[in-house]
Amino acid sequence: TRASYLGFNKISEQLLQVPFLLLSLLTNLTLCFEYGSPVTDLHRVALLKQDLPSDYLVPISYVPNEVAGTCWVVLNIYPLEQSLERLTNNFGDKSTNRESLLIFIEILQTVWLKFDHMKVEILMQYFDCHYQEQHIPSGPYFDYMENLLRGADRGLFDFSCEPPPCPSTRQTFTTPQETSQSPPNLRTQQTPGTMLMQLMHRTWVLYVT
Predict the structure, then answer these.
(1) Hey, is 61 helix, strand or coil?
(2) Family assignment (predicted)?
(3) Among 77, 130, 133, 174, which is 20 to 30 Å from 124 by CA?
């Protein structure tokens, strides 16, 4: 019948659109991953160092290189992103420092999208007791960020590390230079357990969006 014929044509047209939709999706994903090399905007690091006082202390949670081994990049990408997000809150919306920090956050998120999120969460749980909280001056902080981004650029993504035994007590370090010159909200510390909960929530948001 004519109705059946028209219905068949409509279904055929929809099926023909599927490859184009898939191509569009793949193109968008490619653009997402091609935000740029992790080291593309490293010239901004020098500007951030110039603009922030040398005794400006930034809190960060991380697993030291000597403990994390070849999993150093994977274990520290998300904690660095969180640290940068907290740091952006100390600058106005029109601040060039805020703009630079947001660019680095986007780069870290782009790197994150390349990971198997479940593997990262499991690995971070394995190393949970090895995360250290430290307030470090802005210069060494941005040096650390640069080293991590260079590691990401080289594709140093390993998920197969075995954590060493947990220390008898969790180590928390605060630099002696911590003074009232540091903004109050920079003193806020975060436990690895809380970080993992936020990580799992962010992973869920990425999947549903």
Answers:
(1) strand
(2) Belongs to the SCF family.
(3) 174
**Taking residues 112-141, what's their average pLDDT?**
92
* CATH fold of 43-208: Growth Hormone; Chain: A; (1.20.1250)
Output the average pLDDT for the chain.
Answer: 74
For the chain, counts of helices (H) and of strands (E): 8, 3
142-146: list long-range contacts, CB under 8 Å, 24+ apart: 142/45, 142/48, 142/49, 144/60, 144/62, 144/80, 145/45, 145/80, 145/84, 145/104, 146/42, 146/45
Please report, for the chain, the start and end positions of each structural domain, with discontinuous segments joined by +.
1-34, 43-208
- Distance, in Å, from the CA atom of 50 to the CA atom of 78, rounded to the nearest integer, reads 25
What is the bridge-based pairing of β-strands 172-174 and 132-137? parallel
pLDDT value for 132: 94
